[in-house]
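Researcher: Batch entry, complex prediction.
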Amino acid sequence: MSEAFGNFATRVRSDRGWWVAIAAIALALIYPFIVETLQDLPLVGDFVPRTGSMVVMLVFTMMAVGLNVVVGYAGLLDLGYVAFYAAGAYVAGWFASLQFAQVSFHFGSSVSNEQPGIHISMWLVLLLAGAFTLIVGILIGLPTLRLRGDYLAIVTLGFGEIIPQVVRNADEEGIGFDLTNGTFGIAPIDSVAIGDFIFRAEPNKDDLHYWTAIGLLLFTVFCCVRLRDSRLGRAWIAIREDETAAAAMGVPLMRTKTWSYAIGAFFGGVAGAFYASYKAGAFPADFFFNISIFLLCMVILGGIGSIWGVILGGMILGYLNIEGLATIGSKVQDAGVEFDPTKYQFGIYGAIIVTMMLFRPTGLIPERRHKIELEEGVHDTPFYDVQTEGSLTDRNPSDE
Amino acid sequence: MNTAVVVLHRVRASSLIDAFGLLLLAAVLLFLLLKFFEDPVRFLNVGIIGMTNGAVYGLVALGYTLVYGILQLINFAHGDVFALSGLVASTMIISVLDIGTDASVLFIIVGLLVTLAVTVPLFAVINATIERVAYKPLRAAPRLAALITAVGMSFIVQNVSLAIYGVDFESVPPFIPRTAAIEIGGVVIQWNKLAIFMIVIPVLIVLTWFVRSTRQGKAMRAVAQDQEASAMMGIDVNRTISVTFFLAGSLAAVAGLVYLLQFNIRYDTGFELGLIAFTAAVLGGIGNLTGAVLGAMLIGMVQAFNEGLDGTPGGDWTRSIVFGILIAVLVFRPQGILGERTPEGA
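Model: Structure tokens for the complex:
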């Protein structure tokens, strides 16, 4: 886990830290060339993930970094992030597959023009997916973000439950129009391609997707770092620390929160679309509540609000999920113990969440500011008062 | 800005939202009225199914609302405690007591009481332990911390069920007959449905008595209103919170048994049922005990009507409808149906 080490080092906020980050990125880029050597190492060799697994780990890490914008920066608990993942994957299904075979539309795609359906270049589809989920995020956010934290959590959870069910039911039988192909999902989805160089058709397709995923993650991290230091990012942190004080200082609560929600959604959508293209399909069974918790767990393990921490948390948990637990399980079973950790993976994630919250709530790589908040406490008054208003108090004319 | 303009602005915005909400509600009621006149017998039969489902939801919803009232915490683990209690009850009934379809009425009654005598204290203690271990250390932390911990606890409890009972559904033999106990002009209440009310109603009466009239109940209401002030008045806040979790756990255990009498249950049943029950608690007005039961009845009815009448979206959409209601309530009337500030509410 070369990156992980590098990220850990960047926590030292100095120029040297940035050099380490660059070295880590360079190491990450050559990973496909050294993976076989690493796998031949004695003892640890079995635990080195394949490049294909790394792609999945990177995709989930990217989603975790997106979720971190909502949970970490703005302090809004989102338990329905899976909805954006699903939305992104289905946008890829709509605009780059045979799903709508009744029309034929090609734009910049490597797919032959004889094929029916909408085929747009996957790069554009990634953007489209981001834009679509951004709008979904705003639509979900507008009615719900005025609610207090724990209510918001439950509403996002509700959306996280509704959207997969809608996806499962939105076929000919369910709504009279085949939008999502029901329980079968949409497949095949076109591959990422540059001109006629189709990534999926190449023998080293995992490596190509891996580099693309690294690029997407770096893009996400870049955006998040820049956003964090922007006016908007500072407004998010102000809201996280003290909503009332932030409002008094003239931060428009609704708009600021909605932006955090929408931007978090954007990255979820892009990651979802890329993942759908990598595995060539969008299937409703992939989108269930546990994914939202899994992503949340990455954020908490790494450190709420800390980008490097979230990347570390994402890579660790992503690894455990895709390969690690199975590898550990087979080692344990070789040793003669009947225990299958993959069966209890969500129990393990739950235990990680509880342990972290109780003993190290700031995560593996704490964000400095968040650490102070947790240690010294913040003013955490509910911003919703039935007694005096009979409605929500942040319905402030300047927001509308 | 001028105060009058602000007030006007607020009135206009809120009345528009309210009008839309009422319109939605009116449409649903009109639909139900039409359905009632189309086939009253079927409508009422479906309604009874809804009420029995609602009774189970109500017991679970009370657990959410009690805890929320006192700690302002959504105890996500509650639904999973409920599922585990149902599984333990199935072991009691099948393996320990071996109640079969040929059992005598007395044996069934005694058997169910014995089951409750085991599961109720057991899960009361488990629930209170969860609070002590996972939530108590976080009482001073930001609310988000406790909420996230509750989600984690939910997964832990769920996996405990998985480890003990595996992925199979557990069910008990239908020892309470499905024959009609009461029949009025085609509207039937079966024995197994009646039995559920015979369990749930006394429990609700005892709970109401406990919260209203006992010293400990008064302490609970006081702590729900103001923790610091009650501590100054000499109330042991920690103990009171433990008692609340104790109570919630007992209700979950009763709900587990009642659920088991109608449906089969497995390790992840509690997750979705917990969400439905929480929706019910919010619908009724979270923190309000009567509201939780009322909300649960309404949700049970909505579910039954959706699945049992023609012209509705049908069972595939139940979950979406329930969560749609949750979102609509939070948008249109976040304080719920009975949402004035009650002594239990916070």
